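STRUCTURE REQUEST FORM
Protein name: Metallo-beta-lactamase domain-containing protein
Source organism: Penaeus vannamei
Requested output: structure tokens
Priority: standard
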Amino acid sequence: MSSFSGKIKEFPQISVDRFDGRNLASTAYFLSHAHSDHMIGLSSPQFLDHLESNSGVYLYCSAITARFLQASIRHRPLDPFVRPLPPEEPVKITVPNVAEEASHQLCVTLIPAGHCPGSVMFLFEGRGGTVLYTGDFRTSVGDVERIRALHNSDGTVKAVDSLHIDTTFCHRDILHFPSREDSSSAICDLVEDWLARGNNHLIHLVCPAKYGYEYVYRSLHERFGMRVHVSRWKYRMYDTVPEIQDALTPDATETWIHACDWRMREIEEGEDQSDRQLPCRCVPFGVDTAPSIRVIRPSAMFYTVYQSAK
Ligand SMILES: [Zn+2]
Ligand SMILES: [Zn+2]
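Status: completed
Returned output:
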């Protein structure tokens, strides 16, 4: 859960991932990804009013994050002020003046963060120095060597004056963290094993967060050629991201794999799995015996708590 104030002392005129309080005096805004703990104040009337009444004040983010904002009724009014930037390309932007501070140029590079679709880190370079803001990120061994923006032209590592790092799992109990590929393949194996047991064996994926399960959906779709059932509102969220929407379906009766709306209390109370229904209370077309459901809860937090408790 991000607790960042939004302000970077080297660049006092900008705000990152926070859009309320004293951030309303900034003149350039950056959103690393579309998770709600990084969007505080973004849909407030005060923030919209600030953008509308000050020329040249924009919100910068990746193209996919911009598409998510556009697909959300709460954030759509920001559309005229959203400026999607390309990945891994240094871009010069103008930060308009505020009070006695003059307007100035700032070079920003978006670095893919591997956390959820559209998530990026920001590398800021300007008169305040070189600052890396990671936001939520996932890097595997060897990834950093491949990030051009963090290296000089001769291949040496670029000096960063200030690093703002978001970490949930930087803890000595969590020295091993499974890769996204390993986690998805473990989930696919659990699904395969269960579906092979009979036509009435169904999967319930518990996916309470708004975004972040897309890699799992796509892996399941690829492996089983079956789309994942999600609620209609979640399906519509990906209207502008067809590469993810293709792995999903709003039709509960076409699939054995469901990530539709969830009922956490029943799962936590350990209700007898054999007679539980799916949240959508549907079964695939052609299944005429009582469903038997395997519940899978993809959760990095759950994994790490489990590891620490061992
Ligand atoms: Zn996040
Ligand atoms: Zn369902």
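Reviewer notes: Helices lie at 45-53, 63-71, 180-195, 214-224, 232-237, 242-245, 264-268, 300-309. Residues 11 and 128 are 6 Å apart (CA to CA).
Form closed.
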